[in-house]
Hints:
With 1898 residues, the chain is mainly β. 12% of the residues lie in helices and 37% in strands. It has 25 helices and 118 strands. The strands form 32 sheets. Strands 43, 45, 46, 47, 48, 49, 50, 51, 53 and 55 form a ten-stranded mixed beta sheet that branches. Strands 9-8-7-10-13-14 form a six-stranded mixed beta sheet, with helices on both faces. The two termini are 77 Å apart.
Amino acid sequence: MGRWTLHLSVGLGLLAVLLTCCYAEANYCLASKAKSCTECLQTGIGCAYCPDENFDGPRCDLEKNIIARGCGAAALITAQSSKVINSEEKINVALQKSQVSPQRVTMSFLPGEEKLVNVEVFAPTKGPLDLYILMDFSNSMADDLDNLKRMGNELASLVENLSDDYTIGFGKFVDKVIEPQTDMRPSKLSQPWPNSDPPFSFQNVIKLTSELSDFTNKLQKERISGNLDAPEGGFDAILQAAVCRDKIGWRDHSTHLLVFSTESAFHYEADGANVLSGILPRNDEQCHLDADDKYTEDIHQDYPSIPTLVRLLGKHNIIPIFAVTNHSYTYYKKLQEYFPIAEVGLLQEDSSNILQVMDSAFKSIRSKMSIRAEEKPKAFETQFLSTSGKVAQYGDFNFRPGTIGKFMMKLTAQRLNGEQPVCQMSPDEKAGTMKVKPTTFNAGVNVEASVLCPVCECEKTPLPRAARCNGNGDLVCGKCQCYGDWLGSFCNCSLADSVKSTSQCIAPGKTEPCSGRGDCMACGTCVCYNPEQFEGPYCQYDKTQCPRYGGFLCNDRGSCVMGQCACAEGWEGTACECPKSNQTCVDSKGGVCNGRGTCVCGRCNCQSSGLELTSTCEPNFLAQLEVCEATRSCVQCQTWKTGEKKEDEKCKECPFQSYTVTELKESDKVLDSCSFRDEDDDCTYYYTVDSSRDPAVKGMDVQVLEKKECPPASLLWLLPLLLFLLLLLALLLLCCWKYCACCKSCWQSCLALLPCCRRGRMVGFKEDEYLLRQSLLTSDHLDTPMVRTGPPKGTDVVRWKVTDNVHRAPTHPQALIKPNPKEIIQFPVSLRLNRLFSENLSRLESRDAEQLRKEVADNLNEVYKQIPGAQKVQKTTFRMQRNAGKRQDYTIMDTVLSAPRASYPDIVKLTEKNVQSGNVRDLKVVPGYYTVATDREATGAVEFQEGVESVDVHVPLFVKDEDDDKKQLQVEAIDVPLGIAEIGKRLVNITIIKEHASSVFSFLQPAYTYSRQDGVAKIPISREIIEDGHTQVTYRTRDLTAKDKKDYVTVDGDLTYVPGETQKIVPVRLLELGEKDGLLEDKQVKQFVMDLSNPRQGAKLGRYPRTTVTITDQPEPSVMMFKKGTQNFTTSDPTYTIPVVRTRNHDSPATVKWRTKKAQRFELSAPLKFGPGETEKNIVIDPKSHPGPIQPETFQLELFDPSSNASVGERKTTLVSVTDGITKSPEIAQMQEMGFIDRKASSPSGYLPAPGYPKAKATGPRSIHLNWDPPPGNPMGYKVKYWIFGDPEKDAQVLDVKTPQAELTNLYPYCDYEMRVCGYNAMGDGYDTDVATCQTLEDVPGEPGRLAFNVISPTVTQVSWAEPAETNGNITAYEVIYTPIDDEMKPVGAAKKVKIDNPKKRMLLIENLQSAQTYQYKVRAKNSVGWGPFRDATINLASQPARPLSIPIIPDVPIVDAEAGDEYDSYLMYSNEVMKSPTGSKTPSVSGDDYTMNGKWDQNFLFPGGSGTRNMSASSSPMSTLSSNYRGAGGSFTTETTTTYMTGPGGSRRQDMVGGVHTSEVIMRKRSENRGYADENIRDSIVMGEVSSKFPDLNARLSPGVPDTPSRLVFSALGPTALKVSWQEPHCEKDIMGYCVLYQLLNGGEMKRINVTNPAENSVIIQDLLPNHSYLFKVKAQSQEGWGPEREGVITIESAVDPKSPLSPMPGSPFTLSTPSAPGPLVFTALSPDSLQLSWDKPRKPNGDILGYVVTCEQLHGGGDVRSFQVNGDSTETSLTVPNLTENVPYKFKVQARTTQGFGPEREGIITIESQDGSALSQYNSQSLVRREVFQMPTEVSTRTNVSHTMLNDPYFSDGMMMTTTSQHTETSGMMTQITKEVVQRSVMGGTTVTKKMFYES
Length: 1898
């Protein structure tokens, strides 16, 4: 009995739990599975517990559910929270101070509960004000201080206007008195500038006072000070002014304003971490002012961070106002975003407008009010709402001073903190007092909030050894808690005494325990093998065997529970196929089934009718046009006894009965109104047809008007008059014809004189105006209808034009800027071809489209070559235009012609002339239609054919990013060149409103294709985040040729994206082919569309707002591939058996061929045939049947040439590895071949074999779907390991799933991943599958890296940028936009765009900028998905210092002219340098030939006794090649070069002799993005051990035998137009057969080719080059295996040019090649306290043979002599030992390379040799990240410390890059400790501060 009671209780409980699955997600009470009453109540609000002993359901559930299951309401245990308002004094507006009401509230919350509190606030019109002015006292602010001193009276007036109760104070700041911020020379410490005070950090000069005269007097005594670097230490001053409350004088009930005035940027946290000043600890946020009110801890503590300032200013109710000049405005504008409320004002250079800035800032602050909750416990969330209930964002509360404002505070207690219940949080995290107040107030509402965690009283009084628990447990809150080994709901089953028989686990009617699906445990309890599939007390129910509908289990609208479908809310039926709602049966009038049917299972069962009905029993409106015709005969016979059915027998066959009425219903209230002429009496009769309103009456309701309409009596008397008029008309026409026989225009004029023709035809636009929202535009054109009235006979051609931005006045800044007439722009051209349109033409890759595109290009290029400067047409596409009259089935061709802007009228005339003739050369076109457009206007023509009354004008909208927020276009009908129509409505205005979007929604593709066998079409909808937050978009499917409920199930709804979410998937169910459609042979292609609409929360629609889904009926082709990627055999195996598997379409035969590759003894090939139903075949190779001994080898098998109904899958190759092995017996071998023995078979221990066929498919940029076949056995689950390709498998992430599929999410876009799967059971993990690989889809790129500017002159700059950290695909282009702006960041001129199609060219030289004009520069990247976000920077060239490397000519950078002068057509030149991704990029970097930018180098050293790996992050970028005219002075210098190394016994070393000194070679390698590897011979500055033996070839991309890149490219000028190009022979495993030299002008032109067939020749001479033009040269080598990669170089021959002939040099003029570029980065190694070793790399662009280098050395801050050294030679790396240096003194080094052409630009570096006492590193050591590895080292190794500090001045970095490196080498007893320290590198570049962390190991 106990067993059956146990089973009954378990079964009922499980059934009750599972039947609630439809709302389990929302019912957290039930989902918590609470084990006790207290745990239940603490789950969340609404949870109740039933202590009734006899209650059988789940005891913890929502209160209504427990009562519904039979628990008495009186016994129910619940919990209640509380809310008490402790203090609520009403606001007294008479008191002029900030007030809030209520003042104190106490509330308790159940987990998940939310409560509202109504709050009132009052801000006085002139409340108390504390104004503290904090001013930068660096020397550059001297004039600002003088102006402030003179403004005493104006300042007094200002504060009196702001408040009646004010105080004002003053503080000053400079920077930390420490190097490098301050010049520490004694003379500079006493007086940094003439007539100045000593430097200081911060001083409170004037405490807040109400005495303005005293304030003014003290201010007059102040003098300026000074410091070294540009950023100031203002953050230290702000923090002290905030926390030193008493010393500053802040009052309690006043508004606190802090005016911060400066013209420089700011230092912030970690700027105190530098080598010169030591590593400073974090700021302690305490007040440190001495008796003189000076800051005392400036040299002992770091600067505060921005979050610290935000927190402290908010805590002390201080509102900052940043009054800054244009130099630093952008910095503080970005800083403002971090503060809840702050203002930024733009000062003039001398701060003469500081009072106006303060006044406007204070008014702005008073107009805003932001509410916030301070010191909020972690368990709570707050929201602030307006009185209407709308959530208010910042600034939404527009409370006017002097009035009472109201808002609501919503406070919510979280239910869970992550996965942790809120009641398990610490007490201080779930309770506390928060202060809710406006940011400008001191007063606030004190809210004491706590989370209530109730405890049940019944748990405190348990009933021990209760009878209900059979004496074996305590009864606690109605539930038994069993003792010891007792089990069951009533403690009636003993674990110790239970019989081990399995009979208790056998269900009635069954024979196997637990139905063979689980293990029988004690007390007859079944534990199912796979709980995700089997359930029930005996595991008798299979969750996959419930009824299905449409192939979906429970119609995908419910869950399979205990063998039945438990339907979700709103659904019913055995398979949940029926919606409970009748929404699908609602007709267009809001009724159900139109009153003519019943709604059954969501579908209307309609009564029979004489009309075809829709799915909602309404007449089918598609057949509406046939209603009148179908009812005509019956109405005639029934009413008038006339017509073709007037005989009674025929009339009785009518399906309805009509009746007459005196008045008909209005036409809009019936189905249709009809009228016909009765042939018997020539009268017209009228009637209406409608569906019957009475459901009992079948058929239609036909009402006939009882009176006919007959013509009047005879009008014979009119005949003579008509004849006379006709004769008169004929005579008039004859006269006109005689008069205008030869003049067509006169003929038409005569016709217009006739009464019947005058104004007989009119053409004009249908509408007056269109109002469009840019975010909702789905096209860049608008089809604007033009209509024709009057007799539609004859043809009329109407010319039209459209003009952009007609809303701008003539004085508008943009209208004043005239475009450059010689600028090359794109002219979109459209023509209508005399050819019908076909679907193939819409597919660009189709053969028809390709042929027609070529025909169009050939003919148009021939015609438009008459236009000077015109280029070839491109981007040709084909389309249809629907509303085009009789021509709508003809093809319209769209193409783009590039030509000078001034040629627009000529292009229009030439196009119109050819269109009128009907031929564009040999291309047939339809006369009367064309469009020619520019970027601001367009002209075209449309044709009205005979009988056509309306056509569409395809108007371009000229949508551009720089458009005004509201712009207007005007379309005008110009004239009618062909036809007699006159123009009526001539103009139509189009207004486009631009909304600034926070998100952009789009489909990833414009079209998708799915097979019906897929079952579901998964459509991804992507979101591009511009400003993160919540947002929504609506989606909806719509029929095309596919029909709802026949081919697919329509879906619609709203998608909600949470912050950070970028993609969602919309599933659309595809239905199986109906029996009727399945019999059709020529079935129509089934398509439907999905549209996006109604984007909300500031979002807009993007590139693809619509996607077309094609449903294919044919099953997808068979996919054949190798079963495994690798096959392992031994030499003793009798045969090699390689399995090939087939997936999909198993019912038809299929064939694929296979062949071996790179096998030693055989080359085999044969077909492999699969019969119907076969899914696996074996390729069997007998190694003994081939000559030669069987030896270990590795070869490949490849599948190719599948049959037409098949394809080759992912594993088209497999690697066969044959190793040495012992001979197996024939029996063992035979069993293995037959599959009875498997290497991964389930072992005797019970481990599972590997799952089968893992298949991975990318479903989005950040997701992959992986599925596999379950292995034999009963797996409890699966473990999926996945990792990025190239990473070690040990670092893989592991996902535990219960079904044979997994969704991998949160991945990186466009990244290769590897995956393995294993099953597991009670024994543990089984065997892994082979590695499956998959690449995620592309996503839009991130914003480019930092912008950097090299200022060449006040009007010329070179802008550069880094590749985006997240490329998310292959970058295809960049776009640079630069705009002149004013002080308010508003454009004052036209924005100019430059598109750079070569992604390697990430630099741009811009000339002819406006002098002293501020520009905003924006750069964004593009890949195949689209454009990414902009990276922007603002700079005024006139305010920037000239850079050391500023050289007037930079030939290898793209150059554009800001004024678009005559000499620049496009880019003049390009750079062949490639900048890499910044550190921290998740995407592997792309690398060039000679540099490692940001990749990861693996340097392997083999030491005696150990090995290690060293990772080194790159610290610099490759430098631009610069042209220079420097020439060096003469002189001879001799230096001694020494290289120090460490040696030891053992190992192998390659040693070279260089001047009698040994050098060692270290080989380093890196992994690049394309997963190929490149060998580099890099010499490190310290050689740490022996070099291992030769590395294997790491270049996996290059096939053996293909030549490498030619290793060097040398140019020698032979004359002003002749050049010799030489190169060195590349490495190649096979013989070089020859070379190829390609060259062309950098700015475009024909690519010329020279073939060198003699491999011994490695140079060519090229004549007839253009002087002073840059050429791009490429050289590559060829072997039998093919061509190798190219080596590129850029060269210019500079020569004087005859001004009369730009292409001819002057006779006898000299010619030169460009000088060398700067040497590589400088590397410093300290050798002793007074000497160091300096080394550098050869220039990237030698431009000739390097003769040597000149090195100069001088002290950074002056003093001492300038020393020079000359180093001869042409080594790849050169070094120099510099003696006689001084410790702790910074030195500047410069290195220049010298060729026969002169000296190149300098490479600079700054270095300081620190004293070796370790003091400078003591604090650093406590913060650094240390990793120790031990290597066996030689015994004689010295200890030294090297600290280097390098400044790289380069065009890529606006203010240089500061790099700090620390390395230590220590040696003890032959063991070396390797220490890796984390070094912080910060660089300020182009207005952007970038911080990088790099790890150096030594």
